[in-house]
Structures are given as structure tokens and as C-alpha cells.
Amino acid sequence: MSERTLSEKIVLVTGGGRGIGAAIAHTLAELQATVIICGRTLPALQETAGKIRASGGQCEAMVCDVTDWNSVAALAARVEQTFGRLDVLVNNAGIGSFDGPLHLMPPAKWDAIFDTNLRGVFYMMRAFVPLMLASGGSDIINISSIASKNALANGAAYAASKWGLNGLSYSVAEELRGKNIRVSVVCPGSVHTEFSPHAGKDPGKMLQAEDVAHAVRMLATQAPRAFASEIVLRPTQKP
After folding, report:
1. Interatomic CA distance for residues 122 and 33, integer angstroms
2. Tens of pLDDT along 108-154?
3. CA distance 157 to 97
4. For the domain bounded by 10-233, which CATH number is listed?
5. pLDDT tens digits along 147-170
6. pLDDT of residue 27
7. How many CB atoms neighbour CB 45 within 10 A?
8. Residues 111 and 58 sit within 8 Å (Cβ to Cβ)
9. Among 41, 95, 214, 223, which residue is least crowded by beta carbons within 10 Å?
10. What is the pLDDT at residue 162?
11. What's the pLDDT tens digit per position in 14-72?
């Protein structure tokens, strides 16, 4: 049985200019979706969108700061006006801090982590779920972390934000499953990107951005009658 495509579907990926977000955008564009990537840095977004278009895909770059409600609301209005629907929302934008114990963390850094990793996901769902409800059947895929499952010394705020993201996702899944919107989380281990340092780990054994994108691809192409609510992604060999 051939894999379902996303032909005529509209996909939005936050933090889509680089790293995991860019890999997800490339992968879903290969499935014939029209992909919108958003983030705060327009040049990075334009570079990724250009590469996707050069390889035959469809991609639009739009600036949005997920920590700013007005910015998110403006993006939602633009997507509705331009495309009239949204079929897949991938909440990928995230930041972290892994450089010391919680009792030494500046409060502003705590705020920044939660504003992006948790509040930003709320803003995106609050702004886009009404449009997704009107689209007839949609997926929300939230990129969490294996830190949402395990203790993470010197990364407590990041871990707490991802534990919170999982709880948010599972609860919203119950709210929306009867309305034909599936909500899932992907929880990868350490991924070889510029996101955070990985001292002492073998990059060749670590997860790659494309591995996370493959998990998103699986979620976005499931048969309509079921959905995997969570994927925990680990490297085959410990790096």
C-alpha cells in the first residue's frame, strides 16, 4: 500500500528556518504539501524556502514570533486570507538552557524558555484551531523532548517546559479528537543540531534532524481512523 501524500494540504511549521524545523518542512514538501515556515529571522526562512522550491516543493516564508500574541494572530489572519485552510500544524519552535543549576538561573531566562516552549504553543493552537476545525480534518504535532520523560540536571527549566507541553498536548487531544483534529507529541533524544551543546557525544550516533522529520511524516500520513498520540525517538546506538 502506497504512502498517503499531502497533496492540496496546507502545512505550517514554526521555527522552520533551520535545524529540525527545516528538515520537517523539506520532508512534508516532498509529500506535495504547501508548506509555510515561520520564525523570527527572515533570511534563514527565505533560504530554507528557496531550497525547498528549488527541489520542486512549495514553500512560503512568513515572519512570526510565537511568544507574541499579536504576531501569532497576524500570522493566522494572513494564512486564512491567503490559503483559506490549515491541515497540519507543527509546533517546533523551542529554546533551552543547559548551562547550570536552576537556583542560579536568571528569572528572565526561565521566562524566555516557557514563553517559547509552552506559551508559544498555546498561542499557536489558540489562533489556528478555529481555522483547522473549518478544514475538516487536521493534525497538530508538537515537538517535545525525551527530557519530558527523564530528569535533566542543569536543564530543569527546559525539562519542565517539555513536561508541560506533553500535558498540554494530551489534554487538548482529548478536547479535539471528536472534532477530527489529532494532537500528537514527538519526544526525541539529543539531536545533532546547533540547538544545544553535546559535549562528549558522537555526532555520527546521535539522532539527526531528518529522523525527527520522519516521525512527523508518519504522524501526518496516518489513516484517518487512528492516531499515535506520542512517539519517543531514541538513537539506535547510545552516542
Report:
1. 24
2. 999 999 999 999 999 999 999 999 999 888 999 999 999 999 999 99
3. 7
4. 3.40.50.720
5. 999 999 999 999 999 999 999 999
6. 98
7. 27
8. no
9. 223
10. 97
11. 999 999 999 999 999 999 999 999 999 999 999 999 999 999 999 999 999 999 999 99
All three cell numbers of 232, joined, read 519517543
Q: What pLDDT is recorded for position 196? A: 56
170 is catalytic: no
Give the three-class secondary structure for 17.
coil
User: For residue 82, what are the contacts with CB-CB under 8 A and spacing of at least 6?
Assistant: 60
Average pLDDT in the chain? 94
Q: How many residues does the chain have?
A: 239
- Residue 37: name the closest of 220, 54, 95, 20 by CA: 20
Strand ordering across the sheet containing 230-233: 58-63, 34-39, 10-14, 88-91, 138-143, 181-188, 230-233
Q: What's the farthest any 2 CA atoms get from each other in the chain? A: 54
Work out the number of other CB atoms within 10 angstroms of the CB of residue 147: 22
Residue 29 to residues 26, 182, 230, Cα–Cα distance (Å):
5, 20, 23
C-alpha cell at 120: 508559544
- Cell 509552552 sits at which residue? 118
d(CA 89, CA 91): 6
Domain ranges of the chain: 10-233
- The pLDDT value recorded for residue 1 is 37
Considering 37, 48, 158, 213, which one is annotated as catalytic? 158
Q: How far apart are CA 28 and CA 129, in angstroms?
A: 20
